[in-house]
Write a structure and sequence with these properties.
The complex is a heterodimer. By secondary structure, chain A is of the alpha+beta class. Helix content of chain A is 50%, strand content 13%. In chain A, the strands form 7 sheets. Chain A has a 6-stranded antiparallel beta sheet with strand order 12-15-10-5-23-22. A 5-stranded antiparallel beta sheet of chain A has the order 6-21-24-25-18. Chain A has a 4-stranded antiparallel beta sheet with strand order 9-13-14-11. In chain A, α1 runs antiparallel to α2 and α23 (753-765) runs antiparallel to α24 (773-801). By secondary structure, chain B is an alpha+beta fold. Chain B has a 5-stranded antiparallel beta sheet with strand order 1-12-11-5-8. A 5-stranded mixed beta sheet of chain B has the order 3-13-10-6-7. Chain B has a 5-stranded mixed beta sheet with strand order 19-18-17-20-21, with helices on both faces. The radius of gyration of chain B is 31 Å and the shape is elongated. The chains are: A alpha+beta, B alpha+beta. The interface between A and B is large, with 85 and 81 residues.
C-alpha cells in the first residue's frame, strides 16, 4: 500500500515541459559536440550531431517512427566500444582522449534515437557535459569562449526543464505501474492497492513554462556567469610546473608601445584599442586649434640604438634611463627665435611607464618641468607625478610648416657610435643579404645621405616588394628575423620595416636609430584633438644628417647648422585600400573589437597564471584599497576627496553656475530624488532586518514556552471543533468560544475561562511579562476545568443523539 | 486548515551527486594539468550549483500550504484532496514545487502501510495562491491520519532538494465499501412486514410519536399531509410518526476470524462489514424505522436509534474501525441485543462463519422464554461462503 511510485514516461501524453526538454536536449547535445569537434578540429561529427539531434526530435520524439529497442541500442553501444578500443590502440597520448571523446558522441547518438525516459534524458545531459569537459582540455580558440556561455545557458534551460518534467512525471505516473492480478478474491478490493496520483488544473503546467520561466533562467545564467568570472579571476593559480595554458598556446602579442623591441616572436599580433592619450594642437600666436594636414603626425616616445639577437635596446645596452636631464633647460638652449610655434597639449592616461610622447622638435617652456633621457631620447613625467593617473603637459613645437609635418628636425648633438652598430657576433655579419641589398639600392648615393635614405625608404615602402602584415610569420630558423624579412619572408609589421631600414642605412654608413611611439590617431572634430590608441603604436627611423648634408628645410636653422639634423623616415607601407574601405564602413571597429576580445581571451583566459593574476587583479585591487584607506586617514587624501567633491558638484553637476541656473536646478532636483531614494532604501532595509529579527525571536524556545498554556487552550478547543480562523485575533476567538460555551448548561460555568486565558496570553506574548507561579497554576486549573466541562458536554451530546 | 510550518532541510540528490563528482574531476583536471578552460568550466558548474543552492532554499521557505479533504468516504471511492499553496514572495516565482503528504491508517504502526501521495504545483507566481490536487482510492476501511505534509523543490537545477515539513492533524474516516441489496432482500423485508402487520393492528390512523417531516411519496395517505409546510414549500410534505408498532431492524455483526486468518476469512469479515453498512445505509436513507446495529469483534459495540443520516454516520464510523477477533462473543452480544429490541423488530445476524438457528450456540436462547419468540423471525447470513449473494452483491 504505497502511493509513492516512480513513474515511467511511457504511455502518457507528451507534456509541454517534455517537448521543450526534447528540443533543448537536441540543441544542447549539438552544441556540446560542436565544442568538442572544434577541439578535435573535426567537422564531420559536429555536423552529424546536428543532423542526429534534429532528426531524433522529429522521428523519435514527435512521430515515434524511429525508436531503437534495447537490443539494437546495446549492439550499437558495443560497436561504439569496439571502435573506441581500436582507436585507443591505434593512437597514443592525446589520441586516447580523442577516442574516449568520440565514444561519448557515439553513445549520445544511440541515446538520442531511443525512446526518452528520465534516465535517458539524464544520461544525455551527462554525456554532453563530459564532451564539453574534454573540449575544454582540447580547444583553445576564442570560438570556444564565445560558444561556452551559449552552451551554459542552453544547459541551464535544459536541466531546469528536466527538473520540471521529472517532477510532473513522478507525480502523475502512478497509474502506469499498476498491474492487474490474475486471481481475484471474493472481496473485490482485496486485490487492489491504495494508489494516488497528483493532478493539476487543466493548463496549469503549460502556463508555468512561459516567458517568466525563461527570464528566470536567464537571470540565473547571468548570476552563474558572474560567479564563474569572479571564481576564475580570483582563485589563486597554484603550481609551479609552468604556465597555466594548454601546450601550443602562444602568448599574445598586441600592437602597443613598449620601451624595447623584440623581433621574430611567433603568434598573431592584435590591435589593441585602449586609449593612450589625447593630443590637441593650437596656434601659439592666436590660440586657435591647429589642424594637421598631410601625413599623420608622429609622436615619439623613445629611440633605440643597439640591435642584438633580435632585440632593439636603448643606448649603452641598458634600459637605464639615467642620466636624466632637465628638458626645460635643454629647450631654452635650443629654442628657435624666428619660427612660428604650435602649442601641443597632451593628456596622457595612466600607464605602466613614465614615458611621454611628442612630435619633434619640442620645447618645454612652461607648466610642470619634464625630465629627459638623452640615451633613450625619452621625455619623462616629473618625478613627483605618479604613473597611475592621467597627466597633462604642454609643449611648443616647430614640427609643422603650413600645417604639414616636417620630415627633419635639428639634432642636439653628434649621434653615438651605436648609431652605426650592426650585429656581428664573432666578427661575422648576421645580415649579409641586407647589407648587399642596401649596397645595391643606395650604394651609389653614399655621398648624398638624404637621397640615399629616401631611396632605401622608397625601396621598402613603395616598390610593392614588401607587404605590411600583422599575421603570424614563421621566420627561417637560423636567420636573423630582419635578414629573413629582407631576403626571404618579405612581410611583417612596422618594426620589421623600420629595423630593416635602420640597419640598411647603417650598412651604407649613415647613422640611424629606431624610433618608437605613435603615428596619428583618430581626429575628433568636436573636441579638436587626436585620440591616440595603443593600436596606433608605430616604429620608424631617424637618420642622422651631418651639418654639411642638411635637408633644405633646415638649411637656415642655426642649431642644425651646428649639430646636424635627424631625418624622419617611415618605410612602412600604407594600409591597403581594402583596409581603408573596411574602416569607412565600421568593419575596422569591429575588427578592433574582435582583436580586443582575442587579447583578453589569450592573455587573461588561456594564459591566466599566478603572475598575470598578481599584476592584473591582486595588485590593482590592493593598490586601490590602500589608496582608499590612505585617502581617508591622510590629510592630503581628505583634501583630495574634498577637491573631488567640489569638482563633482561644481563642474559636473553645474552648481558653479548657481542654484538658479538650469544646471543648478537639475542638480538640486536630482540630489533631492537621490536623497529620497536613499532614505526609502534605508527604511526598507531596516524594516526588512527588523522583520527578520522578529521572525528569529519567534523561534526562540523560551518565548514559545511562555505561551504554551495558550497553545494548550487552542488545541483543547480544537479537539471540539472550535478552531481559530486565520482572520481572528486571539481575543475575538476567546469571545466566540465563550459564546459557544454559554449555549450549554454543562459548559456555561466555564464561559469566562477563554477570556481569562487570552488576557494572560496577551500579557505574556505582547506585554513581555512573566506569569507569577500562582497565576500559572490558576490557568492550568482553568484549563483542566474547561477540558472536563467540554468532555461532559460531548458525552451528553452523544447520549442525547442516540 | 492552514498547516503550521515545522522544519526545513536540504539534501543532495542523486543528480547532484553525479554533478559534484564530475565537477570535482574537472577541478582536479584543471589544477593538475593547469588548464584554464577547465577552470572556467568548473566556475560555471560551481556557479550553477551555488545559484541553485541559494534559490532552492528560498523557494520553500516562503510557501504557505493549506489542505482540504472530505470528512469521510467509502473504501474504493475516489478521494480528492485539494492542496493550495501561497507563494509569499513578492518577486520570486517558484516552479515544480512538490507536496508529499503522509497518510497512515490508525492502529497500524508498520511504515509500509503508510501512503505517500504526491501533488505538484508546476508554477507558483509570486504573491499568488495556486491549487493542486491528488486523487486516488483507499481500499481499506478505517480511520486515517493525514500529515505531516512535506513541501519540496528541486528547481531549478535538481542538484539539491529543499524541504519544508508542515504539521497536520487532519483525519479521514474511510467507511466500508457499499454494495447492492438484491430483490431477495426486499422480498424478505416485505414478507416480514406483511407478517408482522397481521399481528399488530394499528391503533389509529396517525398513531405513534411525531418524528419529523419528509417529502410526499407515492402511496402516502393524504391525511399525513402537513398542510402548512406544504404550502410554504410549494410541494407536498407529510408527517412521519414513530410507529408504536415497532418495525425496526436489529443487525448483529458477528466479526469472528481464527487466530491466523486466511484470505477467505479476511474476505468474509470485509463482506460482512460491507453488507451491514449497505443495509444501514439503505434503511437510514429511507428513514421511518428504528435501527439497532451491534458488532462483536475486538471492540464490541451497539448503536441504536431512529434511522437517520446522523445515525448512519455513527454506525458507519463504528463499522469503519471494527476489527474481527478470534474469541466467540456471539452469545453475549446476541443476548444484549435481544434485551434491547422492541416487539416486531426483525433480527438479522451477519456472520463470518456458519450460523444456523439450530446451532447449539443458540440453545440457551431457544430455551429462554424471553428470547425464543425472536427465533421465528431470526435471519442469519453467512459470508464465509457465497450464500450471501442472494441478498447482496458487491463489485
Amino acid at each position: 500500500m504505497n502511493g509513492h511510485a516512480r513513474p515511467a514516461a511511457h504511455g502518457r501524453r507528451t507534456t509541454r515541459a517534455e517537448r521543450l526538454l526534447q528540443v533543448s536536449i537536441a540543441a544542447l547535445t549539438s552544441l556540446g559536440t560542436l565544442l568538442l569537434g572544434m577541439g578535435e578540429r573535426e567537422v564531420t561529427l559536429p555536423v552529424l550531431a546536428v543532423i542526429v539531434a534534429v532528426s531524433s526530435v522529429y522521428l523519435t520524439d514527435v512521430k515515434g517512427w524511429l525508436q531503437l529497442n534495447t537490443f539494437v541500442a546495446n549492439v550499437a553501444g558495443i560497436i561504439a566500444g569496439a571502435v573506441t578500443v581500436r582507436d585507443w590502440n591505434t593512437y597514443a597520448a592525446e589520441g586516447h582522449l580523442l577516442a574516449l571523446a568520440n565514444l561519448l558522441i557515439y553513445l549520445q547518438f544511440v541515446l538520442l534515437y531511443r525512446k526518452k525516459s528520465l534516465r535517458n534524458y539524464w544520461l544525455l545531459l551527462l554525456l554532453s557535459l563530459l564532451q564539453v569537459a574534454v573540449a575544454a582540455a582540447l580547444n583553445m580558440s576564442i570560438s570556444f569562449g564565445i560558444l561556452l556561455p551559449a552552451y551554459m545557458l542552453v544547459g541551464l534551460v535544459t536541466i531546469a526543464l528536466f527538473v520540471v518534467h521529472r517532477e510532473e512525471a513522478e507525480v502523475a505516473g502512478v497509474e502506469s505501474k499498476r498491474k492487474p492480478t490474475a486471481a481475484r478474491r471474493r472481496w473485490p478490493l482485496a486485490d487492489e492497492r491504495s494508489v494516488f496520483e497528483g493532478r493539476q488544473a487543466a493548463g496549469a503546467a503549460e502556463r508555468g513554462l512561459g516567458w517568466r520561466f525563461f527570464r528566470h533562467i536567464a537571470w540565473l545564467g547571468a548570476a552563474t556567469m558572474l560567479f564563474a568570472v569572479v571564481w576564475f579571476l580570483g582563485l589563486p593559480r597554484p603550481g609551479k610546473k609552468g604556465p597555466w595554458r594548454p601546450s601550443g598556446v602562444i602568448g599574445y602579442t598586441a600592437v602597443g608601445f613598449s620601451e624595447s623591441v623584440t623581433l621574430g616572436q611567433l603568434g598573431e599580433v592584435y590591435e589593441n584599442p585602449e586609449e593612450v592619450m589625447r593630443v590637441s594642437f593650437y596656434d601659439d600666436a592666436t590660440n586657435e586649434p591647429y589642424r594637421i594636414g598631410g601625413d599623420s603626425p608622429l609622436f615619439r616616445g623613445s629611440v633605440l640604438y643597439r640591435y642584438e639577437q633580435r632585440h632593439w635596446k636603448p643606448l649603452n645596452n641598458s634600459l637605464m634611463l639615467k642620466p636624466l636631464g632637465n628638458f626645460r633647460a635643454l629647450s631654452q638652449q635650443s629654442l628657435p627665435t624666428n619660427e612660428p610655434f604650435v602649442r601641443e597639449k597632451v593628456v596622457i592616461r595612466a600607464r605602466e611607464d613614465s614615458v611621454l610622447f611628442t612630435v619633434l622638435p619640442a620645447y618645454d617652456v612652461d607648466g610642470p618641468e619634464l625630465r629627459y633621457s638623452r640615451n633613450s631620447g625619452q621625455l619623462l613625467r616629473p618625478e613627483q607625478q605618479s604613473d597611475d593617473e592621467n597627466f597633462t603637459y604642454s609643449l611648443l613645437t616647430t614640427a609643422f610648416r603650413d600645417h604639414i609635418p616636417r620630415t627633419a628636425f635639428p639634432a642636439d648633438g653628434e649621434p653615438p657610435d651605436d648609431a652605426l652598430q650592426i650585429p656581428k657576433p664573432g666578427g661575422i655579419s648576421m645580415l649579409p643579404g641586407l647589407q648587399a641589398l642596401a649596397e645595391d639600392v643606395a650604394g651609389d648615393l653614399k655621398a648624398l645621405p638624404e637621397q640615399a635614405a629616401r631611396m632605401l625608404e622608397g625601396y621598402l615602402r613603395d616598390t610593392g616588394r614588401y607587404q605590411y602584415s600583422l599575421r603570424p610569420a614563421r621566420r627561417t630558423a637560423n636567420l636573423d628575423p630582419v635578414e629573413d624579412f629582407v631576403t626571404v619572408n618579405k612581410f611583417g609589421h612596422c618594426e620589421y620595416f623600420a629595423s630593416a631600414l635602420t640597419l640598411m642605412l647603417r650598412s651604407i654608413g649613415i647613422p640611424a636609430r629606431l624610433a618608437i611611439g605613435f603615428k596619428g590617431g583618430e581626429y575628433s572634430p568636436g573636441g579638436k584633438y587626436y585620440q591616440v590608441r595603443e593600436l596606433h603604436a608605430h616604429a620608424w627611423v631617424e637618420a642622422y644628417l651631418r651639418p654639411n648634408a642638411l635637408p633644405a628645410s633646415l638649411a637656415t636653422n642655426a642649431v642644425a647648422q651646428q649639430k646636424g639634423a635627424w631625418l624622419i623616415l617611415d618605410p612602412t607601407p600604407h594600409r591597403s585600400e581594402d583596409d581603408e574601405t573596411a574602416d569607412t564602413f565600421g568593419i575596422g571597429a569591429l575588427k578592433r573589437l574582435l582583436d580586443l576580445t582575442q587579447l583578453v581571451w589569450t592573455n587573461y583566459v588561456l594564459g591566466m597564471d599566478s603572475q598575470r593574476q598578481h599584476e592584473a587583479i591582486y595588485q590593482p585591487l590592493l593598490e586601490r584599497l590602500e589608496d582608499a584607506l590612505q585617502s581617508l586617514t591622510d590629510e592630503e587624501g581628505r583634501q583630495q576627496i574634498r577637491q573631488w567633491l567640489v569638482d563633482f558638484f561644481g563642474e559636473r553637476l553645474g552648481l558653479s553656475h548657481g542654484l538658479f541656473s538650469w544646471q543648478g536646478l537639475l542638480a538640486v532636483v536630482s540630489g533631492f530624488l537621490l536623497l529620497l531614494g536613499t532614505w526609502k532604501t534605508i527604511r526598507w532595509t531596516v524594516r526588512l532586518v527588523r522583520r527578520w529579527f522578529v521572525r528569529r525571536l519567534a523561534w526562540v524556545p523560551h518565548t514559545r514556552r511562555r505561551v504554551e498554556f495558550y497553545e494548550q487552550f487552542e488545541a483543547l478547543l480544537g479537539r471540539y471543533n472550535m478552531l481559530r480562523t486565520s482572520n481572528q485575533t486571539q481575543r475575538e476567538f476567546a469571545l466566540a468560544a465563550s459564546g459557544h460555551l454559554a449555549e450549554s448548561p454543562l459548559t456555561k460555568h466555564v464561559g469566562p475561562v477563554p477570556r481569562r486565558i487570552v488576557d494572560a496570553y496577551y500579557r505574556v506574548r505582547f506585554g513581555e511579562r512573566v506569569l507569577a507561579a500562582d497565576e500559572s497554576q490558576s490557568i492550568q486549573a482553568s484549563l483542566g476545568e474547561l477540558a472536563a466541562a467540554l468532555a461532559a458536554r460531548a458525552a451528553a451530546g452523544k447520549v442525547d443523539h442516540r | 486548515m492552514t498547516l503550521k510550518r515545522r522544519r526545513y532541510s536540504t539534501s543532495l540528490t542523486f543528480e547532484g551527486c553525479c554533478f559534484v563528482i564530475i565537477a570535482g574531476f574537472i577541478l582536479a583536471g584543471a589544477i593538475t594539468r593547469q588548464i584554464n578552460l577547465l577552470m572556467v568550466l568548473f566556475g560555471l558548474l560551481a556557479g550553477a550549483f551555488v545559484a541553485h543552492g541559494l534559490l532552492v532554499r528560498s523557494i520553500v521557505r516562503r510557501i504557505q500550504v493549506k489542505r482540504r479533504l472530505p470528512k469521510s468516504i467509502s473504501a474504493g471511492e475516489l478521494l480528492v484532496v485539494e492542496l493550495s499553496a501561497t507563494n509569499q514572495r513578492r518577486w520570486l516565482g517558484a516552479w515544480a514545487v512538490a507536496a508529499t503528504d503522509t497518510l497512515r491508517r490508525e492502529g497500524t504502526t508498520t511504515g509500509k502501510r503508510t501512503l505517500r501521495p504526491r501533488a505538484l504545483w508546476s508554477h507558483l507566481p509570486p504573491g499568488e495562491t495556486c491549487t493542486t490536487t491528488y486523487r486516488g482510492r483507499i481500499v481499506q476501511r478505517g480511520r486515517y491520519q493525514f500529515g505531516p505534509l512535506q513541501v519540496s523543490s528541486r528547481f531549478p537545477f535538481g542538484f539539491l532538494r529543499s524541504r519544508a515539513m508542515f504539521d497536520a492533524n487532519d483525519s479521514l474516516i474511510v467507511y466500508p465499501r457499499l454494495g447492492q441489496l438484491t430483490a431477495a432482500w426486499r422480498r424478505w423485508q416485505e414478507g416480514l412486514e406483511t407478517g408482522s402487520g397481521r399481528n399488530s393492528p394499528r391503533q389509529g390512523l396517525l398513531e405513534g410519536d411525531f418524528y419529523g417531516l419528509r417529502d410526499w411519496r407515492s402511496g402516502d395517505s393524504r391525511r399525513w399531509l402537513h398542510w402548512r409546510t406544504s404550502a410554504r414549500r410549494q410541494t407536498p410534505v407529510v408527517r412521519q410518526f414513530e410507529q408504536q408498532r415497532d418495525r425496526g431492524l436489529a443487525i448483529l455483526l458477528d466479526l469472528w476470524q481464527p487466530e491466523q486468518p486466511g484470505e477467505d476469512e479476511l474476505d468474509a469479515v470485509e463482506i460482512a462489514t460491507s453488507l451491514a453498512a449497505t443495509i444501514a445505509t439503505e434503511l437510514c436513507r429511507a428513514g421511518g424505522r428504528r435501527l439497532l446495529v451491534a458488532s462483536t469483534g475486538r471492540r464490541p459495540w451497539i448503536i441504536e436509534g431512529p434511522a437517520s443520516m446522523a445515525l448512519l454516520d455513527e454506525i458507519m464510523a463504528s463499522l469503519a474501525t471494527s476489527e474481527a477477533a478470534s474469541h466467540d462473543y456471539l452469545s453475549n452480544s446476541l443476548s444484549e441485543l435481544l434485551d434491547r429490541v422492541r416487539r416486531s423488530t426483525q433480527v438479522m445476524i451477519i456472520g463470518t462463519r456458519s450460523l444456523e438457528v439450530s446451532d447449539h450456540r443458540f440453545d440457551s436462547f431457544r430455551n429462554d422464554s424471553r428470547h425464543k419468540k425472536w427465533f421465528s423471525r431470526l435471519k442469519t447470513v453467512d459470508t464465509s461462503n457465497n450464500s450471501y449473494r442472494e441478498l447482496f452483491q458487491i463489485a
